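Private note to self, pasted from the team thread so I don't lose it. Backbone tokens:
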């Protein structure tokens, strides 16, 4: 007991000598505690969706636009990885989900080892177990491709460039393609595969087949744009563009130009933007530990994987103008989003620089103006009261009803795609809607409220610092007058 009393007396004496009071001392201790807890909560709540796209995919910007537009609305961070970053061990730091279209085996294994759920986009990655896959309907795509061939070819050979032989999606695609063309016994299908990233081998096989079967090949179909573009160049070199029809399975800006020029009969719109939207929504549910209502699946080299199947449609000369407008509009939106992102990063760097200079000047003026602490204390209390009243007026932030054990949020996302003519008139629309119910722990809301209060207190301290500077200026002028 005596020890406790002696400690209290020493504390009171030190406070009297330094001119500080109990309220400011406790306020400083509590403030530092709040700052520490605020920083730790920010680190805990940091959620990042990492995205690794195939840089050779002509529709990568549309995939990314679908992901980024929803991420901006939901205020979630998306980290788009470059090819170099995929080889960095720290590339997946703080990532809660990885959306991947292509990636090195070591990189994907690193994500798998770190228990980061992998969502595959547009196909299954080999060698790893994906949590799910978002892809265009392979059966529907194969069937639609075959129907376009049936309208142009009555007999002869059709070559199908399948791509990688082990690709499960490509296998489903070519199976549906062959099944549909089997309705005409006068048409035979010859499929060509190639090892991973070895499309030139497929072109060599295609050239040899054309040379061995002169005049018999009536059409060439390809699963993706890379194979179809190489086939088009081969036909040009062999002067066969007028004799062999071309049909694609992945519409993009370049293939749409070929259709417009008459070099290609049709293509398949795989809705890359919609794929990106669905990938983000699935990733968000994984981060929030919510169940996903997916009933379909496909089987790859790692077994059965849940699959979100996206409907596809044919692009012909009849609807070409509408599709081209849609792709052009998406490209403009992606450029605008990249511009806004670069501007916000520049502003962020500028504000950080100003904040550092402000901290230096405030540290340099620490210890001054002790004579005005009483008035400053009063102004600080007024600022806090103003902050509290502002919180009450803004819709009850900082108020948690008693007895709350669970908080849910209902989120409705709606995407409207418009097809316009040259004059800007709307000729057709596509509408996709998604409803989500998210569960938020009350503790997380309380932490957010503490952060908001801390930021408001820091704003009040900034105003208090301005008052101190003005007061010091007034004291200096009074001293100068007394000297005169």
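Design output:
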């Amino acid at each position: 007991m005596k020890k406790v009393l002696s400690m209290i007396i020493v504390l009171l004496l030190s406070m009297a000598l330094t001119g500080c009071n109990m309220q400011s001392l406790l306020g400083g201790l509590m403030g530092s505690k709040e700052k520490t807890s605020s920083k730790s909560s920010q680190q805990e709540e940091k959620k990042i969706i990492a995205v690794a796209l195939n840089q050779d995919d002509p529709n990568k910007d549309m995939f990314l636009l679908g992901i980024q537009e929803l991420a901006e609305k939901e205020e979630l961070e998306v980290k788009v990885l470059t090819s170099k970053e995929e080889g960095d061990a720290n590339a997946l730091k703080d990532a809660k989900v990885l959306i991947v279209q292509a990636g090195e085996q070591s990189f994907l294994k690193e994500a798998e080892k770190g228990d980061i759920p992998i969502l595959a986009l547009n196909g299954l990655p080999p060698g790893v177990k994906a949590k799910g896959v978002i892809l265009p309907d392979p059966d529907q795509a194969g069937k639609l491709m075959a129907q376009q061939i049936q309208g142009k070819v009555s007999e002869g050979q059709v070559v199908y460039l399948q791509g990688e032989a082990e690709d499960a999606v490509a296998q489903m695609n070519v199976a549906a393609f062959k099944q549909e063309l089997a309705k005409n016994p006068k048409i035979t299908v010859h499929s060509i595969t190639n090892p991973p990233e070895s499309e030139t081998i497929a072109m060599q096989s295609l050239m040899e087949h054309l040379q061995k079967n002169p005049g018999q090949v009536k059409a060439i179909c390809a699963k993706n744009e890379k194979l179809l573009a190489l086939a088009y160049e081969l036909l040009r070199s062999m002067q066969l563009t007028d004799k062999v029809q071309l049909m694609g399975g992945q519409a993009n800006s370049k293939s749409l130009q070929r259709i417009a020029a008459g070099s290609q009969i049709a293509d398949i719109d795989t809705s890359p933007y919609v794929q990106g939207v669905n990938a983000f929504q699935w990733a968000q549910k994984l981060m929030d530990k919510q169940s996903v209502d997916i009933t379909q699946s496909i089987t790859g080299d790692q077994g059965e994987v849940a699959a979100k199947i996206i409907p596809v449609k044919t692009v012909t000369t009849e609807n070409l103008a509408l599709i081209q407008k849609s792709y052009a509009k998406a490209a403009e939106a992606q450029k605008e989003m990249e511009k806004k992102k670069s501007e916000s990063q520049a502003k962020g760097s500028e504000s950080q620089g100003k904040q550092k200079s402000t901290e230096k000047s405030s540290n340099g003026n620490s210890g001054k103006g002790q004579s005005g602490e009483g008035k400053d204390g009063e102004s600080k209390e007024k600022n806090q009261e103003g902050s509290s009243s502002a919180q009450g007026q803004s819709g009850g932030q900082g108020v948690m009803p008693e007895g709350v054990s669970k908080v849910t949020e209902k989120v409705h996302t709606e995407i409207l795609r418009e097809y316009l003519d040259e004059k800007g008139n709307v000729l057709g629309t596509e509408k996709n809607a998604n409803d989500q119910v998210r569960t938020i722990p009350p503790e997380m809301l309380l932490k957010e409220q503490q952060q908001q209060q801390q930021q408001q207190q820091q704003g009040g301290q900034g105003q208090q610092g301005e008052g101190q500077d003005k007061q010091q200026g007034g004291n200096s002028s009074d001293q100068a007058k007394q000297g005169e």
